[in-house]
Amino acid sequence: GMAMLTRAHTFLRAITLQSAGCGSMDAAGVKSSLMASLPVAHGRRSFRTAAALFKDTLDTPFLSDSVPLPEGILGTVDELLLEVGQEVSEDEVIAVIDTAKVALDVKASRAGVVSEVLVEVGAEVKELAPLYRLESK
Prior knowledge:
- The chain has helices at about 1-20, 25-35, 45-55; strands spanning about 55-60, 75-80, 85-90, 95-100, 105, 110-115, 125, 130-135.
- The chain is globular, with a radius of gyration of 17 Å.
- A hairpin with a 4-residue loop joins β4 and β5 (about 105).
- Helices cover about 30% and strands about 30% of the residues.
- With about 140 residues, the chain is of the alpha+beta class.
- It has a four-stranded antiparallel sheet, with no helix packed on it. A four-stranded antiparallel sheet has the order 5-4-2-7, with no helix packed on it.
- The longest helix is centred in the first third of the chain and has 20 residues, at about 1-20.
- It starts with a helix and ends with a strand.
């Protein structure tokens, strides 16, 4: 019960403190491994708050209107075409997702400079999943 929760909390805090002390790369690494260990299935409500956080991201497209997708899963990341520090222009192809039917070119919804790559090649991605974070202007 409570004891478990508090323990998990202290553990999380320890990680955050550790990462604050190191270079920003480490913090990002810890953050992404934390992200990776979080379950992917979000409830509606938590998804909306996540979407607000991800304003600065380039995401996979939303296709369900035209293509029914089981659980909103789009496919696996086949190619990531951007790296950190790279400048991207709107509508540039930024990634290739291998869907059940086709290789899908994902285009940038806006221009910017990549500050973080949020997925790995081979990862399974859903619709509207953030692929890259852009530097905030």
